[in-house]
Amino acid sequence: MPTRNEARNLEIVLPAIAAVRPAVHEVIVVDGNSTDNTVAVARRTLPWARVITQTRKGKGNAMACGFTAATGDVIVMFDADGSADPNEIPAFVNALVKGADFAKGSRFCKGGGSDDITLLRKSGNAGLNTVANRLFGTRYSDLCYGYNAFWADLLPQLELPDPAAPQPEDGSMLWGDGFEIETVLNCRVAAADLTITEVPSVERERMFGETNLRTFADGTRVLRTLMAEHRRMEQRRKASGYAR
């Protein structure tokens, strides 16, 4: 769970995760140098949660730090703003147990929904889905959703930036350290020909604070990520002599 100034939300979200049955193995809160009391609230609200600080900056780096710290067989990506329903965690795990490598949350498959998405964002997501599916041969119905789960032993195949690598001196972020992380994961799972199962999910409204989403800027970033990851896939296939 990546966090940055989510103290008020954690007071509600963490107990809800702890109440999930079957019980989760661990909760890892990765803090991005919050300026509120996120860390203190996390430790007070759920004392057995593991609270770590990310090594660089960006959501992608926070996620990679959490992935590396995980000790369980399954990793569930979970937002701290209250938009994700903890009671859906067993459904994601069940999809993996039944044979999936990657359980992809979807607001737009049967049983899914959203209390938060606007018509503009929904339309943009549909367009990006079409591009992704054509480039990677997938059948995603909801590319731009970050509630996902996968087997921890697949991490080496995803080749995410090493959390131990230093922050570039010019202040830039390594590829995969930013908000492109979710699209990068979706692309690399597809490029690796892993088994993907969509899991219906209902997105709630953020409880406290303001979203960092910027419809047009984020949509452009996702499109650039799709193109960059497609080039990466094609280059690797060419180098290995793989032919479609």
UniProtKB/TrEMBL annotation:
InterPro entries: Glyco_trans_2-like (IPR001173), Glycosyltransferase_2 (IPR050256), Nucleotide-diphossugar_trans (IPR029044)
Superkingdom per UniProt: Bacteria
Domain (Glycosyltransferase 2-like): residue spans on this chain: 1-150
Gene3D superfamilies per UniProt: Spore Coat Polysaccharide Biosynthesis Protein SpsA, Chain A
Family: Belongs to the glycosyltransferase 2 family.
PANTHER family: RFBJ PROTEIN (PTHR48090:SF7), UNDECAPRENYL-PHOSPHATE 4-DEOXY-4-FORMAMIDO-L-ARABINOSE TRANSFERASE-RELATED (PTHR48090)
Protein name (record): Glycosyltransferase involved in cell wall biosynthesis
Natural source organism: Pseudonocardia alni
Taxon lineage: Bacteria, Bacillati, Actinomycetota, Actinomycetes, Pseudonocardiales
